[in-house]
Design brief:
Layout (H helix, E strand, L loop, with lengths): L11 E2 L2 H12 L5 E6 L12 E6 L3 E5 L1 H4 L3 H7 L3 E4 L2 H10 L6 E4 H7 L7 H9 L19 H12 L1 H14 L3 H13 L21 H22 L3 H4 L2 H10 L4 H5 L13 H13 L19 H4 L1 H21 L3 H4 L2 H9 L7 H10 L4 H18 L12
Parallel strand pairs: 1-4, 2-5, 5-6
Antiparallel strand pairs: 2-3, 3-4
Length: about 400
């Protein structure tokens, strides 16, 4: 398989003069605009873009340094009304919007790959399958805040956008051939309008290993340590786990040391900031030991229990869900779509747990839309789901032993 190669040596645009020249060139190009962004996830606290790549036919490939450029309003104005091609747009839209780049229309090549039934949707795999080119992906987890960026990284970044327009054209053909163009358009719009930054209640509860902590006081220690680490990480713009890993915070919450000396002596309390910021960590433990505001060990969930409990808690809903899953799976196989792209598991569970009355195609479709399903999804499954609910109401036949 041939290796994908660049048309020219990549150069980083990091001055105002070069930036404006690049914008003029992009504005003079034609067709959709391929856009990608590289962050420093796992290295930095923020999710800001440290490199933004743009390709357009008739213009070429441009690599922009966001920290150096700052204001991208000129580029935004130049391409605002064009279609933007992004691979996995849900991952990049937030950091692009932070610098003022907000598309009016997108074509998401990762999402298109899912809708086309391609089993592996990473950019390299999709490029190989549809364009017959090998795309090296060895720098995907690099620290893109590094300066200067190595040339091998820049080549990798440039190729990420240089092939996107050809990939988009091939995918558009396949979507048309399979009758999925409208489906793709609705899905692309849903991604573009989706709220990407979710504000979580008690984010400290996502600490890996928290389930091993016992008692409300231990949870209070975990909470205070997480908040202290988060404040430090934000101020330094360093990924929290690179300061003190989750396992170390959880180890302290399990043992609850009674003094700073005891904390310092803990072998399980490690990390590059575990000793240099010892006063900070002991202050967090002390606050937890003195606090009267203890967190709940078990947080009440919503009114819908996990599906494994439905057979006992709500047998009728259990039958509805099982029947609906079978119906939806059959439709997904017919459409050659992943089931989760046809309808999210949570949406199906919720409509099965609390179905509309009467449960017919129209009312089930309306309930699905209210729960966040797109119109094409409701049209595809509402009738089958309604029918599955009806069959779930049928009495289960009991065999007569005398007849056998």
């Amino acid at each position: 398989m041939p290796e994908a190669t660049l048309a020219e040596r990549p150069v980083v645009t990091d001055t105002r003069e070069a930036y404006l020249a690049a914008v003029a060139a992009i504005a003079g190009g034609h067709g959709p605009v391929a856009v990608d962004a590289e962050r420093a996830s796992g290295f930095r606290y923020s999710q800001r873009a440290y490199l933004i790549q743009v390709f357009r036919r008739g213009a070429g490939t441009f690599l922009f340094d966001p920290p150096a450029i700052g204001d991208f309003s000129d580029l935004a104005a130049a391409i605002q009304h064009e279609e933007w091609i992004i691979h996995a747009a849900s991952q990049d839209l937030t950091c692009l919007r932070e610098v003022g780049l907000d598309p009016e229309r997108i074509f998401d090549t990762e999402l298109a790959a899912r809708l086309l039934g391609i089993p592996r949707v990473g950019l390299g795999t999709v490029v190989e399958e549809l364009l017959g080119l090998h795309l090296a992906k060895e720098h995907s987890a690099a620290d893109w805040s590094t300066r200067p960026l190595p040339e091998s990284w820049l080549k990798y970044a440039a190729l990420d956008v240089e092939l996107l327009v050809d990939l988009r054209d091939k995918m558009a053909e396949l979507l048309t051939e399979t009758g999925k163009t409208r489906i793709a358009e609705e899905e692309f719009e849903a991604v573009r309008h989706r709220e990407l930054k979710i504000v979580r209640t008690d984010p400290w509860r996502r600490l890996s290993g928290l389930h091993s902590v016992k008692g409300a006081r231990g949870f209070a220690v975990a909470r205070e340590l997480w908040q202290s680490r988060d404040e430090l990480a934000r101020s330094l713009d360093v990924a929290p786990g690179r300061l003190v890993p989750d396992a170390s915070l959880v180890a302290v919450a399990r043992s609850i040391p009674s003094s700073k000396r005891e904390l310092a002596a803990m072998r399980d309390f490690s990390g590059r900031a575990s000793r240099s910021e010892l006063d900070r960590w002991w202050g967090a433990v002390s606050r937890a030991l003195e606090s009267e505001d203890l967190p709940q060990v078990r947080v009440p969930g919503d009114s819908m229990p996990p599906p494994r409990a439905w057979a006992d808690r709500n047998p009728a809903a259990d039958r509805r869900l099982k029947n609906a899953r079978a119906a939806v799976t059959a439709i997904a196989e017919y459409l050659e779509l992943p089931v989760e792209n046809l309808i999210t598991p949570d949406t199906l569970r919720r409509v099965a747990w609390s179905p509309p009355a009467p449960a017919d195609e129209q009312t089930v479709g309306a309930a699905l839309i209210e729960l966040g399903a797109r119109p094409w999804q409701a049209e595809a499954i509402a009738g089958a789901v309604a029918d599955s609910f009806v069959s779930a109401r049928q009495p289960i036949p009991i065999e007569d032993p005398a007849a056998s």
